[in-house]
Amino acid sequence: MQAALEAAVPLDSVEPAHADVADMRAELETLVILREELRRVQTLAHRLTPDQRLVVASQVALQMGAGEFCRLHGWSPEKYRKVAQRARARLKQLMVLDARDVPPVRAGRMDR
After folding, report:
1. Most buried of 25, 62, 74, 109, CB within 10 angstroms?
2. pLDDT of the residue at 17
3. Alpha helices in the chain (DSSP H)
4. CA distance readout (Å), 98 to 40, 44, 75, 93, 108
5. Rounded to 5°, angle at Cα 92 from 53 and 110
6. Does the pLDDT value for residue 48 go beyond 60?
7. What is the spatial distance between Cα 60 and Cα 76, in angstroms, rounded to a whole number?
């Protein structure tokens, strides 16, 4: 756990080119898809409120539980629950909207 925390980097302080996460167990295609999803989350997270970004970052990067977060930031469990719920819903909505902006690839042809 300590090693993971030392290697953890906040989502909003990383340049997109340096956000690669390697999972040696994943197949290459799966790894590429997961990295792209991580980049999308990183980019879209900037459109969350500061409180929502704080909660998401603490959950994802630090694996911090609700109790520890509330003690550290002086939040009630209810506020934490509501902010986390809204952050997940907003991020999901942003991901759907972002996916609509990507043109579909035609079968047998990939333009760059």
Report:
1. 62
2. 52
3. 2-7, 28-45, 50-60, 66-73, 77-100
4. 8, 9, 31, 9, 24
5. 115
6. yes
7. 20
Q: What is the CA radius of gyration of the chain?
A: 16
Q: Phi first, then psi: give them for residue 105, nearest 5 degrees.
A: -90, 130
Topology of the domain covering 14-100: Arc Repressor Mutant, subunit A (1.10.10)
Structural domain boundaries of the chain? 14-100
Q: Which distant-in-sequence residues (6+ apart) come within 8 Å of 14 by Cβ? A: 42
Check residue 104 and report its DSSP letter. P
Three-point CA angle 18, 22, 27, nearest 5°: 135
pTM exceeds 0.90 for this model: no
CA distances (Å), origin 18, targets 34, 42, 62, 73: 14, 11, 18, 29
111: Cα separation from own chain's centroid? 28
Residue holding tokens 């909003």? Answer: 12
